[in-house]
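Run log // design_07
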């Protein structure tokens, strides 16, 4: 694949979901590599561009309005921009919320992906445009295989995961039926200080920071025993880019190959915020208390448990390491948590 096409001074990329955590890190990466970057955002009466605000002054970064549920807007974008690469990161990505809005999740995450692929085809770009589809470790759900790889059967346990399974399958189908270059990245949990506040990792680091500053009394959590393979989002977007540099489209698990429990994440976050937690009790009666004062810092609320929770997710990144030359854990789990807490210790005082 050539770096540029005849008549073009740089490659052009379209990122859906550009205002999200992954979209902002990916935009930074592509700009560093000399791309012209177009970010698709949804129109809102409230500005939500804080993650990409620092990119607005870059002459190679542009915003266009669109929506994954509006096929016409996607067709127009593909026809107008004629991108060399499309990174589909837009989604209703909160697993818990997907139980509350299952139809919207399906429209955005499943049908939206289909609309985007059809938009690429309608623009006559099916042979020239490379597409990255953001898949998820939630696809595996209740699968028994540990660690989980590209050949592990899917068993989605949420409306979000079910919608993403359709998106994964339709991408593979279009790759085989139309010869399109479409790669699915099955990303395990990847976090950062840009993570949404409704996600458990950011909920924890924000709460630890607020408690440290006397702005919050305690943190309420659900399943402390849930174990996840957590990596740094900034490392993972590099692998997205590497997938579209690979000679052939394919599906890749992106993970660190290590896992930690919510309890471990919580303990580490509070430690970096200046508090050591001792855990006592079990199940819904478990509490995390300050070792020095005995004050309750964390407790469990049964209503925060998901209707069908996934207890353990651990990925096998060997294929991505071997074929893409990717390094899974440039940022360690400890450095990731410290980074998030250090940011939030300042953020909560703004």
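design_07 sequence
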């Amino acid at each position: 694949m050539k770096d540029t096409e005849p008549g073009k001074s740089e490659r052009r990329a379209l990122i859906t979901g550009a205002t999200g955590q992954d979209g902002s890190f990916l935009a930074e990466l592509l700009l560093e590599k000399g791309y012209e970057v177009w970010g698709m955002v949804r129109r809102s009466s409230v500005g939500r561009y804080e993650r990409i605000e620092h990119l607005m002054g870059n002459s190679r970064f542009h915003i266009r309005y669109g929506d994954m549920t509006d096929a016409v807007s996607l067709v127009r974008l593909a026809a107008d921009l004629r991108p060399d690469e499309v990174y589909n990161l837009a989604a209703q990505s909160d697993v818990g919320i997907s139980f509350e809005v299952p139809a919207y999740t399906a429209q955005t995450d499943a049908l939206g992906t289909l609309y985007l692929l059809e938009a690429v085809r309608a623009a006559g770009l099916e042979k020239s445009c490379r597409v990255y589809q953001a898949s998820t470790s939630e696809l595996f759900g209740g699968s028994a295989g540990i660690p989980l790889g590209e050949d592990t059967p899917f068993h989605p346990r949420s409306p979000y995961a079910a919608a993403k399974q359709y998106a994964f399958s339709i991408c593979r189908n279009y790759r085989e039926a139309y010869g399109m270059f479409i790669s699915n990245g099955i990303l395990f949990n990847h976090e950062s200080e840009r993570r949404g506040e409704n996600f458990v990792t950011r909920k924890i680091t924000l709460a630890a920071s607020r408690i440290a500053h006397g702005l919050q009394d305690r943190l309420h959590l659900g399943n402390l025993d849930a174990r996840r393979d957590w990596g740094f989002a900034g490392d993972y977007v590099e692998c997205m880019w590497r997938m579209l540099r690979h000679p052939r489209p394919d599906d890749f698990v992106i993970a660190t190959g290590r896992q930690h429990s919510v309890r471990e994440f919580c303990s580490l976050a509070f430690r970096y915020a200046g508090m050591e937690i001792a855990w006592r009790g079990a199940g819904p009666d478990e509490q995390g208390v300050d070792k020095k004062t005995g004050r309750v810092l964390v407790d469990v609320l049964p209503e925060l448990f998901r209707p069908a929770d996934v207890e353990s997710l651990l990925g096998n990144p060997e294929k991505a390491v071997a074929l893409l030359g990717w390094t899974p854990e440039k940022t360690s789990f400890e450095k990731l948590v410290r980074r998030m807490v250090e940011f939030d210790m300042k953020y909560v005082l703004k």
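The radius of gyration is 20 Å.
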